[in-house]
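User: I'm new to structure prediction. If I give you an amino acid sequence, what do you actually give back? Let's try with this one:
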Amino acid sequence: MAVLAAALAASALVAPVVHAHGGTVEATPPPTPAAPPGDGATAEQILKKLEGLDAKVAAVVAEPVKQARKALERAHGARTAGDTSHARLLDALALEWAQTAETLTRAVKSEEAAAGSQKQAQTTATQLDRGRTLLAESQARKGRAEAELARAEAEAKEAADAAKAAEESRLSGKKGKDAKGKDAKGKDDKKPDKPKGAKGSPKKPDATKAPTKKGGGK
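Assistant: Good question. You get back a string of structure tokens that encode the predicted 3D arrangement of the chain. For your 218 residues, that looks like this:
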């Protein structure tokens, strides 16, 4: 009977409050006194550590936290009614719910860390692929630049060789002309002057010599 009376008293504490205008609201239950050392106290410590979680984690552990607090309240009611055996059982139940909430919290945080690591790994892989692409493009540009440089050097060498050959040809032609000119001048210098009365000059007739008569005369 004592346990029943205590349960009824606890129910009365959390019964909805009826307002004069007919509406009802849930009455805020008074804070549960601290549990004595044991499972109940350990459960309360775990629940305290779980306070201030971010919204995502809090949503996941909301139900086990709620059940743990509810078990602690029932354990307190049982102790108030003098039912210590049930109070210990309810403290143990509260601890199980609190530990469940703690385990779920670690799991959610681990998943978040894994997701973050996976995202970081994907970002790193993307950056690595991009780096490889940039390296390949850089090597290709370097190869093209080296080919252009080799072509330009070959063209420059070819032009230099052609210019050298043209200059040598010009100098060789000039030397040949100079040699021919010297030979012609030497021949002119060696040519003797024609003597007077030499062959090829017309001989003038001697006017003092009388002409010979043809056919004889008297």
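You can read the tokens as a compact description of the fold. Here is one thing that stands out. Helices lie at 2-13, 39-49, 55-80, 84-190.
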